[in-house]
Amino acid sequence: MEGTSNYPDATFTLRLSYGTVRGYEEDGRQIPALTNFEGLYQRSAEHENKPPFDLPQRWIDKKASLNPQTPFNFVSDADIIGGNSGSPVVNKANEFVGIIFDGNIQSLVLDCIFSDKQARAVSVDSAAITEALRNVYDAQPLVDELTSAK
Predict the structure, then answer these.
(1) Among residues 33, 78, 115, 148, which is most buried (max CB within 10 A)?
(2) Percentage above 90 pLDDT, the chain
């Protein structure tokens, strides 16, 4: 609609971005680049499993079957904009490593200007996807299909 006068959002627009998985500093504290299942359960417990930190009963019941050190989410300094949710994340070897689903509050400026100081794309790690499919949702055939080399 606005031609080349405005940067397009990601909806229906092919975009390629690159970045580095890395944490950032916020209010004087270091925010790590990676979370894991252990942190998921800790956060829920800190909030007595109440919204918005409540976990589905299935996840509570299956906690012991999950590796607590499995990477869950990660942040990167990839340049994102509204509409990037669901975008695949690949590494240098072109291997699928995650899916972007959000940005931190500092990423809102990316609509207008790029900054890698604090702005971060938030992605779910592919290891978390396969771990959950295997051990929470009992979907081993799907895991086999997703991880088979063809």
Answers:
(1) 78
(2) 71
Q: What is 16-55 written as a DSSP string?
A: -----B--EEETTEEEPSEEEHHHHHHHHHHTTT-TTS--
Q: Which domains does the chain have, with CATH numbers?
A: 18-147 (2.40.10)
Beta bridge partners of residue 26, listed in sequence order:
29
Peptide linkage before 52 cis (omega within 30 of 0): yes
Helix runs in 1-150, H state only:
37-46, 57-61, 126-135, 140-147
Global pTM value: 0.86
- Residue 92 gets which letter from DSSP? T
Instruction: For residue 13, give the DSSP letter.
Output: S
Between residues 109 and 141, which one has the greater pLDDT? 141
